[in-house]
Amino acid sequence: MRPLILPANQPRHFYRGGSAIARFRGGRSPDDRRPEDWVGSATGRIDDASAGVTVLPDGRPLPAALAADPLGWLGPAHVRRWGDSPALLVKLLDAGQRLPVHCHPSRAFAREHLGSAFGKTEAWLVLETADPDGGWVRLGFRREVPAERVRAWAAEQDTAAMLAATHRMRVRAGDAVLIPAGVPHSIDAGVFVVELQEPTDFSVMLEWKGFAPDGDRSGHLGLGWDLALRCVDSTAWTLDEVAGLVRTREQMPVTDGGARRVLAEAADPFFRAELAGDGAVFPAGFAVLVVLRGEGELRFEGGSLPVRRGQTVLVPYGAGGTALRGAELDVLRCLPPAPEEDGR
Ligand SMILES: O=P(O)(O)OC[C@H]1O[C@@H](O)[C@@H](O)[C@@H](O)[C@@H]1O
Domain of life, per the record (predicted)? Predict the structure, then answer.
């Protein structure tokens, strides 16, 4: 099997964005509502299952290709643990406006109430901020917020109260941020990230006014507000705890293979990511690559593929061991959780 270069896959969304994705990829956005590019996605949008799913160059939707040859795409250990799900969703996300405050269910909540083995823990690697000095993200309540108050903020759409209650953190290009399930969060305008997440589209919208006209109906995942808001982490996060969710490039440890481990160990049950360049060698495994800088080639068993900045590449297990060549190459390699991991 060969690694495949994937074209942009940007379903229309209710929030603005997408120009940074077009610049990065070297294309054009059809309009200003394409803030997310779903890469190597076997996940459909919650409101439209046909949107979001990657269509391979041969015309097959990725889920059909995975179902037809799970071992070839994912490898035996992954299939034993996760079946024919890639257990990973990668997106490019360009916030053209501040995103609404929202959160995502945990695996335990998703299993119990949504019939899904996956929740939506996620992580961002910041690629650019409109202001070179950095952009802002918001995450975690500064003080414990009683459930009734969260409910009242959502019912009244009290955006000011929600934002005031939430930590605001500066992030710069190269920083990685882990967002545990349940933690309320939002990304400010001008922040462009690669996002790794569990392969679902479950969002509980605390804020929707001015974003999604039907938010009062669609924002609770069909569970009703009382149940949906139970997935919100309303505990107090200290500034240090929130800062602990952010890793700068310098804080990313270098592995034996010369790559940098992007995310903290706490992310391992959900996904893994490494930054790698010229000379890096990887064992066989399903991966989504985002070429962040430079140009060069991706070697695999039986061939090589030229790659350059702005491309996204889907690597099947069946491509065998791979290696990167190219003096200025900087590649983010996104991986599903290790098969032995068991996140909750
Ligand atoms: O980066 P996350 O938290 O997934 O934010 C992006 C998400 O924003 C929410 O407001 C919803 O619109 C989701 O459909 C969207 O995917």
Answer: Bacteria
pLDDT of residue 338: 87
* Residue whose entry in the numeric block shows the structure tokens 């068991």: 342
Quick check: CB of 195 below 6 Å from ligand 1? yes
Residues in the chain: 344
Ligand 1 centroid – CA 321 distance (Å): 34
Give the Cα separation of 275 and 164 in Å (integer). 35
Domains of the chain, CATH where assigned: 9-249 (2.60.120.10), 261-335 (2.60.120.10)
Distance 203 CA to ligand 1 centre (A): 6
CA dihedral 244, 122, 88, 260 (to 10 degrees): -30
The pLDDT tens digits of the residues spanning 231-259 come to 999 999 999 999 999 999 999 999 877 89
Give per-residue pLDDT as tens, 22-63: 999 999 989 999 999 999 999 999 999 989 999 999 999 999
Distance 117 CA to ligand 1 centre (A): 19
Q: Best substitution site from 171, 187, 203 to test ligand 1's pocket, by max atoms within 8 Å of Cβ?
A: 203
Strands 287-293 and 295-300: unpaired
- Ligand 1 site, residue 103, Cβ cutoff 6 A: no
Provide ipTM, 2 decimals.
0.91
Extract the tokens encoding 238: 């200290």
Reduced to 3 DSSP states, what percent helix, strand and coil does the chain have, rounded to the nearest 5? 20, 30, 50
Beta-bridge partners for 178: 123
CB 79 within 8 Å of CB 71: yes
The region, left, alpha or beta by phi > 0 then psi within -120 to 50, assigned to residue 200 is beta
Q: Is 100 in the pocket of ligand 1 (CB under 6 A)?
A: yes
How many CB atoms within 10 Å of residue 297? 16
